[in-house]
Amino acid sequence: MAVDGCGVVCKYILVIFNIIFSVVGLAFLALGLWLRFSDGTRGIFNVEALNSSAFVLGVTVLIVLGSVMLVVVVFGDYGACSEKRCALQTFICLLFFLAVAEVVVGVLAYTSRDEVGHRLGEFYVSLYTLYANNNDPALAITLTFIHNALHCCGVTGISLVEIVKKTCPKPDGFMESLVMANCPTTILNVFDRRASLVLGVFLGTGALLITALVCSIILLKHIKRSHHAVTTYYSTVY
Fold first, then answer.
1. What are residue 179's DSSP bridge partners?
2. Greatest Cα-to-Cα distance within the chain, rounded to the nearest angstrom
3. How many Cβ atoms are within 10 Å of 55's Cβ, its own excluded?
4. Burial class of residue 211 (count of CB atoms within 10 Å of its CB; 0-12, 13-18, 19+)
5. Whole-number Å distance between alpha carbons of 78 and 89
6. Can you give the residue ranges of every domain in the chain?
7. What's the CA dihedral at 81, 85, 86, 92 to 10 degrees?
8. CA–CA separation, 107 vs 195, rounded Å?
9. Do the Cβ atoms of 106 and 206 come closer than 8 Å?
10. How many angstroms separate the CA atoms of 90 and 64, rounded?
11. Which of 7, 92, 108, 109 is 20 to 30 Å from 196 at the Cα level?
12. What is the DSSP code (8-state) at residue 152?
């Protein structure tokens, strides 16, 4: 059976959406796996005291979210291309829950940006303290990665007293050779400055999911109508 008119338009919109969604899902999954197994961050997951940290939870969410998105794409592509109602109905349910989750998480992250920033800062302090106590080489690599990514140095930023200064980035000038931005404050400021961007990304993704949800419902109705027309025709003929 084949759909026509608006159903065809929605079908191709869903195909394009699933291509974009699969790319984003692969990106999330790849980023999560890279953060989980790269030399710079792998050591965090081997430290029991950090297993409940915001970073570990964030990486786990990336891996799970990327995997779920790829599963959703499978149902969406199969349902749209083959015009299978069962697959489309499953796709619609998954899209609905994802759209609601995207909007809720985005709003919560924005309204609780200070708390999230503080949690990330606390995670850094825990990492810093563990390294100061045992000088674990894996934690040194992780601290070096964070320091270079954020261009900050330890919890004080003062090179004369900073005990992790060998993991800090090279100073940009004379003043930074004496005092560099400390990492807990830098983490809080970075997250606070980019909170609006994070909210925009979540809401934009939610709007995209809702658009795909509407197109899926329209396509499903057209498939049902087409199926009913074919059934009526054969019942009349035979």
1. 158
2. 93
3. 20
4. middle
5. 11
6. 5-237
7. 80
8. 10
9. yes
10. 19
11. 92
12. -
**Residues composing the chain:** 238
**Which single residue is written with the structure tokens 């674990």?**
136
What tokens appear for 196 in the block? 């609006």
Residue with tokens 């109602």: 85
- Amino acid identity of 3? V
Burial class (CB in 10 A: 0-12, 13-18, 19+), 201: middle
| Burial bucket for residue 184 (CB in 10 Å: 0-12, 13-18, 19+) | buried
Q: What is the model's pTM?
A: 0.69
Alpha-helix residue ranges (DSSP H) falling in 135-194: 137-150, 174-178, 183-193
How many helices (H) and strands (E) the chain has is answered by 8, 0
Between CA 88 and CA 123 the distance in angstroms is 42
Tokens representing 200 are 């925009």
Q: Which two tokens stand for residue 85?
A: 């109602």
Beta strand extents in 2-141 (DSSP E only): none
pLDDT tens string, the chain, 238 residues long: the values are 556 667 788 888 888 988 988 998 898 888 888 878 877 667 667 766 666 666 777 788 888 888 998 999 999 888 888 878 888 899 999 989 988 888 888 888 788 877 877 888 888 888 888 788 777 777 788 788 888 888 888 888 887 778 888 888 888 888 888 888 889 888 888 877 877 887 888 888 888 888 889 988 988 888 877 766 656 655 666 5
